[in-house]
Give the backbone structure.
Amino acid sequence: MSTAERYAAIVAELAAAAVDAAATDGQRIDSLTWLERIKSAAAAAQARLTDSFAVSQREKLIKAGAKSQDASRSITAQVALARKDSPHKGSRHVGLAATLVHEMPRVLDALERGETSEW
């Protein structure tokens, strides 16, 4: 099973998860907590992938003769498109990813464990 297929299966499982009418409020809160941890782990994976993509693309684009500013614009636009966000938000995603990966690795580790949020 490819990575994309594994992610699609996770999305399908989350989409199919129904609210159990017989669940207690405590169980609902526990479910909310676990879903938040899933979101955090996904954000950590996105940060690592975003930074890896940005580094790789920058190298390729600069080597091909692109100016640094044009390379940055291309990278952030592609990230924004992949995340279904605006180019401005794509720039924020790329910046946050670089910060987490290169300057705040312990925070990124906590994010992977679902112990903190992306922001």
Q: What stands out?
A: The mean pLDDT is 94. The two ends are 32 Å apart (CA to CA). DSSP finds five helices and no strands in the chain. The first helix runs from residue 3 to 16.
